[in-house]
Amino acid sequence: MQSLLVAQMPTAVVNENYFDIIIKGGWILIPIAFLSLIAIFVIVDRYIVLHKAASEDERVIAQVKDYILNGKTDSALATCERSNQPIGMVVAEGIRSMDYSIEDIREAMEGKSREVLNMLETRMNILSLVASIAPMLGFLGTIMGVIKIFYTISLTDNLSIGSISDGLYQKMICSAAGLLVGIVAFIGYQLLNGRIDKIAAKMEKQGNDFIFFLKRGK
After folding, report:
1. How many domains are contained in the chain?
2. pLDDT in tens, the chain (218 residues)
């Protein structure tokens, strides 16, 4: 009889799937799940935007320089605006300021560069917040669960390992879920920031090249 009970015990554990275990984490998993959806949306959205921004066609800048050498500033400006790329926006600002000094052109392009970078960094602060808040929410859920466990023990005076471990493992799910969402958000934040830094460096280099090109022409 005892051997039969022992044989049946693992079967009950195996039949409990991961979804059933996760559900036992409690209501705190709802905001954590919501944060995970926000993180995924921001990561995908920023990746698409940054991928387009990084795929700059260098032939556009070469064509712009050719137009300027031939005195076709309107065509050069139109080419930059059609490109709809970060460096195109910056160079377009420089072309609009060509009647002024080189320093004025540089300041105009630097101001536009900051504006473009702010646009690329849109929603990145949300991703940073998710990376910070999700683990804290998970830890809060675990702490609340532990408080409930000890409150129940104080009422029932039942200090059995089964009653403690059963409730504790359920609440540890909150911490695990929060950490998982936080890690995903943190990795996404770092990788996307790395791409933004590369775009900024490339934009600065091409902007300086354009300034040097104008200096030679003036």
Report:
1. 1
2. 444 334 444 444 445 555 555 566 677 888 999 999 999 999 999 999 999 888 766 778 888 888 988 889 899 999 888 887 888 899 999 999 888 888 999 999 999 999 999 999 999 999 999 999 999 998 888 887 777 777 677 667 666 665 565 567 667 888 888 999 999 999 999 999 999 999 999 889 988 999 998 888 65
Residue 2 in any domain: the answer is no
Query: In Å, how far are 78, 95, 160 from 98, measured between CA atoms?
Result: 15, 5, 81
Structure-token pair, residue 21: 């275990």
Cα gap 61→163, rounded to integer Å: 70
In a domain, 25, yes or no: no
Contact 172, 142 (CB under 8 A): yes
Domain that holds residue 40: 30-217
Residue 3: inside a domain: no
CA–CA dist 180, 68 (Å, integer): 53
What's the whole-model pTM score?
A: 0.78
Which of 93, 96, 128, 87 has its CA nearest to residue 111? 93
What tokens appear for 140 in the block? 């809060």
Task: Give the CA distances from residue 8 to residues 14, 17, 18, 161, 166, in Å, rounded to whole numbers and listed in that order.
Answer: 10, 17, 20, 20, 19
Q: How many Å is the Cα radius of gyration of the chain?
A: 29
- The verdict on residue 12 lying in a domain is no
CA distance 163 to 3: 24
HSE, CB side, 13 Å, CA atoms: give it for residue 152. Answer: 14
